[in-house]
Specification:
Largest sheet: 4 strands, antiparallel
Distance between the termini: 26 Å
Shape: globular
Strand content: 35-45%
Helix content: under 10%
Oligomer: single chain
Length: about 190
């Protein structure tokens, strides 16, 4: 039996855990429960209690991502909004990036920290300039169904989207107008 025991566990959510994200340094773990309307952030060396809480959220959190700094946290909600906290440790300031018309189901930040990619339940993928805090001019590609997962390659040149249609779309991130490489054959949704 090759199963390993977990080194620890975190509990206390009112509902299923919807999204988790490690900070780039690996020192912090952000967790959002499906219906909790709060985000808990743990110092990975002390999982006894959350180091930070972001509470009073107006909508359910669907997706989470840290920026390239441990203090930058981004989340997408079921109202189609993206929330950006550039310093959740010392400030309660939240900036809203508005552009989706359905829940924001997946987020990824480029390794340079300059751009954010977001995917929605309606299959829209948007590119955001984090320095200017605005959406780039056009959506990325066309997808048939919910974007369940998005990631950017470590060199920042490849973008992959896993969709509810059972396909993965791979884009040249340096030329998003080019046709994606598409592969599928999966019999169910990609998460």
């Amino acid at each position: 039996d090759n199963l390993r025991e977990p080194i620890d566990s975190i509990s206390g959510f009112k509902s299923a855990v919807e999204s988790i994200s490690f900070s780039e340094s690996g020192n912090y773990l952000a967790v959002a429960g499906r219906l909790d309307r709060e985000i808990l952030i743990w110092d990975i060396d002390d999982l006894d209690s959350a180091a930070h809480r972001i509470t009073g959220l107006e909508a359910d959190v669907e997706s989470l991502a840290f920026g390239t700094s441990d203090n930058v946290l981004i989340w997408g909600d079921d109202d189609g909004k993206i929330h950006l906290m550039t310093d959740y440790v010392d400030s309660n300031d939240i900036e809203i990036l508005d552009g989706h018309t359905s829940p924001v189901s997946s987020l990824a930040v480029t390794t340079s920290g300059t751009h954010l990619i977001s995917g929605s339940e309606r299959g829209n993928v948007l590119l955001w300039n984090l320095k200017k805090k605005r959406k780039e001019a056009r959506p990325v590609g066309k997808h048939n169904g919910r974007i369940n997962s998005i990631d950017i390659g470590p060199e920042g040149s490849v973008l992959a989207c896993g969709c509810a249609d059972g396909k993965v779309y791979v884009y040249n991130f340096l030329d998003l107008d080019s046709e994606p490489v598409e592969f599928g054959g999966l019999h169910d949704r990609i998460y």
